[in-house]
């Protein structure tokens, strides 16, 4: 009798303890889809690992989904399948594109109630692209704006000093001085490379008084004299004065090609996100500066980079868990580490005041350009049809610059394609 | 009763598994696709019925569709005749008893078994305008190579070139099979009658290969119309939509523009085009294809 009783007792204990353990140790699983390749990719994974090590309630899994374009396609598919990830990192146009689907959670409640992180936690200029109607959807995480990268050695060699051109008029002049042609008439160094991407063209277009779409209604409006003027100017630099070189298409992915050529000194100036800064050779004597403006206007740039969004279709527990992840990703320490590793600017004000960050900026002032430029940042005219608009617009730009045809006609034809 | 059972029930039971697959993965999606094509739908919000608007929109001046169709036909012209001529020539060479014939047959077949994406990356480097092998060799000959994928005029021919290179090995194996089925006596008889190599080719080889050619042609046309990987990996349909082909365009409408209805309409048009081609091909083929020897 006795051994049997004992055995029974042990069994009961086992079952009980097992039960208790499983109640205790069931962390909530949260998936985060992101688009961070290159250097930012492993950095983001490291932050996720540290988050998982720091607590036991939430288990974060990060999934790389390719470029922002690929990510947005997959995210749209997941919404259609009614199975979106709890968290997703969308680019700057994400608010306008996905706001109308109703699939994203309004986070203003969390920001109002949370004692640690509220609206005032963030750099103010970064929040303008977060609102869809009266819903706050986007928590700034990896934020950037476009800056002008230039090769200081080339500048000195061409007798241009070490300061960047401030206006487009100056940039065109500088490009001519920086371009080198060899004895056979082949160009071995181009002064400038315009990035034929809607986001890097936007500062130039805004500065000339144009826009891709109406910021209020989202209606495409790029078939204007202001936009055409800008594109003709670029086309002339590429085809007539041959002081600029362009990279188009996905071949080597145009952005990577431009970066490789800038690294090798084949182009002297180009415009790219501040988020690319960590990717250049240490030895390269480069500086970053504000994107130029036209002579009679102000500096202006679009906000860029990505933000964290939460899915609406979650339980209260899942939402709370996802909020914990967001909080960890935007707290001062994480942001300081993220910014120093990648080049993206810290999105929160407390990070800017940390001693590490101030030391970092005095040592590497190139990283601070985006923060300094932030007061000139404006909201992009995103909407449900924005992805279609930029797709059509970029095709038109390629046609204008590569086939060397008059910009206005091409834009007028292209804008009809959007419906 | 038993006869009835055997005659009218058993056959249907036997084809049931296959039919289930065809209906679930073939017919139902086609019908659904037609239904979607009559709506405006971004995959997420409610569908709104718009009748035939999506179809009408394809043929207005506001649509890329005519250009995409033109690109696809041009691509077919660039790709299909050279593939047929080159793979037939290769097959003729490789049945002549050349030294190391079997090794060559294997080698030429290799591109076919490599995934298209890998091939695309390989050719991305070969056709790179500045550092690529092709333009380097052209430069040695004193020719300034084109910009290939960067050029509005050369991007589509570049895709055609890659596709031809990939396909030749496979189609020549089909032709080799066809050639081996031609009885040797026919050539001997022709020789006795004094036929030279050219006459033997035109009057014996080509007619007796016609059923292989029909098969090759149908496969090539379907392959061309459904081409997706090359533009998706290499060009994104650019520059300036010069390599935007039919299926890539469907993908763009659906997953860049989120215009589900419009994408479905293009799919339906593509389906109808392929149907017309395949049916007419089999009708016409009775005139030029000889199945009997």
Could you explain how this protein is built, in words?
The complex is a heterodimer of chains A (419) and B (293). Chain A has two domains: 24-144 and 304-372, 3-Layer(aba) Sandwich (D-Maltodextrin-Binding Protein, domain 2), CATH 3.40.190.10; 146-302 and 385-415, Periplasmic binding protein-like II (D-Maltodextrin-Binding Protein, domain 2). Chain A is built from 17 helices and 14 strands. Chain A has helices spanning 2-24, 40-54, 68-80, 94-98, 108-113, 152-157, 168-178, 198-207, 225-239, 254-263, 316-330, 332-342, 349-353, 355-363, 369-373, 386-403, 407-415, and strands at 28-34, 58-64, 87-91, 131-132, 135-136, 139-144, 146-151, 180-181, 187-193, 267-273, 286-289, 301-302, 304-310, 377-378. A five-stranded mixed beta sheet of chain A has the order 2-1-3-13-6. In chain A, a hairpin with a 5-residue loop joins strand 8 and strand 9 (187-193). In chain A, helix 2 (40-54) runs antiparallel to helix 12. The longest helix of chain A is centred in the N-terminal third of the chain and has 23 residues, at 2-24. The N and C termini of chain A lie far apart (83 Å). Chain B has 293 residues and is mainly α. Chain B has two domains: 1-36, no CATH class; 52-288, MetI-like fold, CATH 1.10.3720.10. The interface between A and B is medium-sized, with 31 and 31 residues.
The number of E-state strands of chain B comes to 2
CATH topology of the largest domain in chain A: D-Maltodextrin-Binding Protein, domain 2
In terms of structural class, how would the helical and strand content of chain A be classed? alpha/beta
Could you give the count of β-strands of chain A?
Answer: 14
Q: How many helical stretches of chain B?
A: 13
What's the helical proportion of residues of chain A?
Answer: 40-55%
How many helices of chain A in DSSP terms? 17
* Outline type of chain A: globular
State the end-to-end distance of chain A: 83 Å
Quote the average pLDDT of chain B: 89
CATH topology (fold) name of the largest domain in chain B: MetI-like fold
Strand order of the largest sheet of chain A: 2-1-3-13-6
Low-confidence stretches of chain B: none
Q: What would you call the shape of chain B?
A: flat
What's the order of the H and E elements of chain B? HEEHHHHHHHHHHHH
How many discrete structural domains of chain B?
2
CATH class of the largest domain in chain A: Alpha Beta
The domain tally of chain A reads 2
């Amino acid at each position: 009798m006795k051994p049997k009783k004992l055995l029974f007792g042990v069994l009961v204990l086992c079952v009980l303890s097992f039960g208790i353990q499983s109640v205790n140790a069931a962390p909530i699983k949260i998936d985060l889809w992101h688009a961070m390749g290159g250097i930012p990719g492993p950095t983001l994974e490291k932050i996720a690992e540290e988050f998982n090590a720091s607590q036991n309630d939430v288990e974060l899994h990060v999934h790389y989904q390719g470029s922002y374009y690929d990510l947005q396609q997959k995210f749209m598919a997941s919404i259609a399948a009614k199975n979106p990830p709890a968290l997703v990192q969308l680019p700057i146009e994400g608010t306008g594109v996905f706001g109308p689907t109703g699939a994203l959670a309004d986070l203003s409640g969390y920001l109002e109630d949370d004692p640690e992180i509220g609206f005032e936690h963030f750099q103010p200029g970064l929040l303008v692209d977060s609102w869809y109607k009266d819903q706050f959807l986007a928590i700034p995480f990896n934020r950037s704006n476009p800056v002008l990268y230039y090769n200081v050695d080339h500048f000195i060699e061409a007798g241009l000093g070490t300061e960047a051109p401030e206006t487009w008029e100056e940039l065109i002049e500088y490009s001519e001085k920086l371009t080198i042609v060899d004895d056979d008439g082949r160009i071995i160094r181009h002064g400038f490379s315009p990035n034929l991407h809607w986001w890097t063209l936007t500062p130039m277009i805004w500065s000339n008084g144009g826009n891709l779409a109406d910021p209020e209604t989202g209606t495409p409006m790029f078939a204007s004299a202001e936009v055409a003027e800008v594109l003709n100017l670029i086309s002339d630099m590429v085809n007539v004065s041959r002081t600029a070189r362009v990279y188009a298409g996905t071949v080597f992915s145009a952005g990577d090609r431009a970066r490789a050529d800038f690294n090798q000194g084949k182009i002297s100036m180009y415009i790219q996100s501040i988020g690319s800064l960590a990717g250049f050779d240490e030895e390269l004597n480069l500086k970053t500066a504000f994107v130029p403006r036209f002579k009679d206007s102000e500096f202006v740039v679009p906000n860029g980079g990505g933000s964290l969004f939460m899915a609406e279709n979650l339980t209260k527990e899942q939402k709370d868990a996802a909020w914990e992840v967001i909080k960890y990703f935007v707290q001062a320490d994480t942001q300081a580490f993220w910014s120093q590793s990648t080049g993206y600017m810290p999105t929160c004000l407390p990070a800017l005041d940390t001693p590490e960050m101030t030391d970092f900026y005095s040592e590497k002032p190139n990283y601070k350009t985006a923060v300094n430029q932030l007061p000139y940042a404006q909201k992009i005219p995103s909407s449900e049809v924005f992805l279609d608009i930029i797709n059509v617009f970029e095709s038109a730009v390629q046609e204008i610059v590569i086939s060397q045809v008059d910009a206005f006609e091409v834009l007028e034809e292209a804008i009809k394609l959007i419906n | 009763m038993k006869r009835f059972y055997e005659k009218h029930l058993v056959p249907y039971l036997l084809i049931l598994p296959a039919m289930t697959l065809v209906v679930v993965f073939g017919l139902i999606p086609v019908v659904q696709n037609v239904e979607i094509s009559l709506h405006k739908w971004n995959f997420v919000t409610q569908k709104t019925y718009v009748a035939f608007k999506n179809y009408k929109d394809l043929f207005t001046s506001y649509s890329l569709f005519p250009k995409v169709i033109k690109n696809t036909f041009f691509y077919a012209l660039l790709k299909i005749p050279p593939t047929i001529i080159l793979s037939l020539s290769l097959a003729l060479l490789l049945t002549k008893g050349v030294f190391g014939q079997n090794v060559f047959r294997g080698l030429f077949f290799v591109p076919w078994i490599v995934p298209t994406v890998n091939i695309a990356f390989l050719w991305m480097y070969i056709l790179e305008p500045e550092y690529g092998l092709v333009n380097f060799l052209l430069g040695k000959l004193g020719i300034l190579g084109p910009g290939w994928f960067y050029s509005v005029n050369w991007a589509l021919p570049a895709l055609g070139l890659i596709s031809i290179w990939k396909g030749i090995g496979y189609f020549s194996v089909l032709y080799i099979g066809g050639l081996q089925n031609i009885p040797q006596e026919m050539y001997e008889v022709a020789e006795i009658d004094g036929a030279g190599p050219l006459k033997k080719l035109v009057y014996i080889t080509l007619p007796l290969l016609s059923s292989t050619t029909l098969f090759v042609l149908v496969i090539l046309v379907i392959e061309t119309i459904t081409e997706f990987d090359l533009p998706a990996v290499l060009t994104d349909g650019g520059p300036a939509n010069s390599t935007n082909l039919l299926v890539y365009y469907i993908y763009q409408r659906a997953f860049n523009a989120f215009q589900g209805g419009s994408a479905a309409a293009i799919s339906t048009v593509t389906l109808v085009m392929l149907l017309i081609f395949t049916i007419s091909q089999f009708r016409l083929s009775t005139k030029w294809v000889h199945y009997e020897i």
